[in-house]
Specification:
Layout lengths: L4 H12 L9 H11 L5 E6 L6 E7 L8 E6 L18 E3 L2 E3 L3 H21 L8 E6 L7 H10 L8 E4 L7 E5 L2 E9 L3 E2 L9 H22 L12 E9 L5 E2 L2 E9 L7 H21 L8 E10 L2 E2 L5 H8 L6 E4 L5 H6 L4 E3 L14 E3 H16 L6
Parallel strand pairs: 3-6, 3-7, 7-17, 8-16
Antiparallel strand pairs: 1-2, 2-6, 4-5, 5-18, 8-15, 9-13, 9-14, 10-12, 11-13
The structure holds zinc ion.
Zinc ion binds next to helix 3.
């Protein structure tokens, strides 16, 4: 078994588009739509609000029938800036049984293999399809699963309930049925600037946001002690982290603004809402305490919380028919949890049975000289072929 010329070409073509998350993915999406043109596939493009990116959802077979299969991958990749690459990251370099390129593991090889197989079924087996086969390609996964969420919000009802969504993130072809979610926030403090020699004439935004930084960690400690636990994960509790803090302009100026970012990674069963509610309440208390202490000063302190990423935790059902079918095809039948966040939680929330499983190792994802073993490519192609053949049998 080796990969076909068509699979190889498709991999090379997808790798060739620099779809770092900050860039548009429209050239890649146009390439895919051109490939599928005239094959009778039902095609939906779902553009980002600024129209620079798009999700693609394409289906063949009896579209409105439940029990179909969806192959899902993200088109964006992490940046290569600041990384030391031995080869051109946007050109496949084959060496010693490996393919090196940005997105080789995460996750253009999966996207390419899925596209090639989808195209093959559309060309050769469309008349035999007993249930729908869909291909979903999303944007902005790496920056918070934004494309997948927009797709579900605007077109989630386009498809009848599938039997299986296969999210082909690199798991070394092992089934993953759960991952933590992620929610990211900016905490803004707006005070009042003045010269540091008369600090009472101003409000130091850093001072009040610092109280909130400490509070976030106090809630984090409580989540660790008393929060929801899922022992499949290490650590087994929902975590918090303050990632950045910015404020002030000089040593002799009372800072009028301060912003810090923090995240929480909720385990399945936790939504992160406890943390959010408590932080918002704490902000109100800090504002009130300031107002009480500075009556008549005419100064006011404003604290506000903005959420910019929200991906629910994923807790799939490994006993679902679709999951059991997928696992039956794998060499390693152990079902794992992933330490990283995926789009699976978004699909599960939409009521779609989902499993994460794809070729390549997460160890190589996001790294300089990212690669995928050719053996994984071959086995990934074989898995995708067998998964799609499910659509030729009745549900
Ligand atoms: Zn990925």
């Amino acid at each position: 078994m080796s990969i076909t010329q068509n699979q190889k070409t498709t991999i090379e073509e997808l790798i060739g588009f620099d779809t770092t998350s900050v860039n548009s993915n429209l050239d890649l999406i146009t390439y895919v739509t051109n490939r599928l043109d005239g094959l009778g596939a039902h095609l939906t493009l779902d553009h980002s609000p600024d129209k620079t990116k798009a999700n693609l959802l394409t289906t063949i077979g009896p579209k409105d029938q439940a029990g179909g299969i969806i192959l899902s991958g993200h088109t964006d990749t992490v940046p290569v800036a600041g990384q030391n690459w031995s080869t051109d990251p946007y050109k496949i370099a084959e060496s010693q049984g490996r393919l090196y390129a940005r997105g080789s593991a995460d996750m253009k090889v999966f996207c390419a293999l899925a596209l090639a197989q989808f195209e093959h079924i559309a060309k050769e087996h469309a008349g035999q399809l007993q249930r729908p086969l869909s291909l979903v390609l999303t944007y902005d996964e790496e920056v918070g699963c934004i494309g997948a969420q927009n797709l579900i919000d605007t077109h989630g009802d386009l498809l009848a309930k599938p039997e299986l969504v296969l999210v082909g993130e690199p798991t070394s072809l092992r089934a993953v049925s759960a991952n933590k979610g992620i929610r990211c926030f900016e905490a803004h403090a707006k005070g009042h600037g003045c010269h540091s020699s008369s600090p009472d004439k101003g409000i130091n935004a850093i001072r009040y946001n610092a109280k909130l930084v400490d509070f976030v960690y106090r809630v984090g400690d409580e989540l660790k002690k008393n929060g929801v636990k899922d022992i499949r994960f290490d650590p087994a509790y929902s975590t918090v982290n303050v990632g950045t803090i910015n404020g002030g302009s000089a040593i002799n100026v009372v800072a009028d603004e301060c912003v810090f970012t923090f995240e929480t990674r909720p385990v399945p069963g936790d939504t992160g809402e406890t943390l959010v509610t408590r932080v918002i309440k704490q902000q109100a208390q800090i504002e009130q305490a300031f107002a009480d202490a500075s009556k008549g000063s005419g100064l006011s302190l404003n604290l506000d919380l903005r959420e910019y990423v929200s991906v629910p935790a994923f807790n799939g059902d490994e006993n679902h028919t679709g999951s059991r079918f997928l696992i039956s095809l794998l060499a390693d039948k152990n079902v794992l949890v992933a330490p990283f966040c995926t789009e699976a939680g978004v699909y599960q929330k939409a009521g779609w049975n989902t499993i994460v499983c794809g070729p390549g190792s997460i160890d190589q994802a996001h790294q300089p000289d990212e690669f995928i073993e050719l053996d994984q490519v071959k086995r990934g192609a074989n898995l995708i072929e067998r998964v799609t053949q499910r659509c030729l049998t009745a549900a």
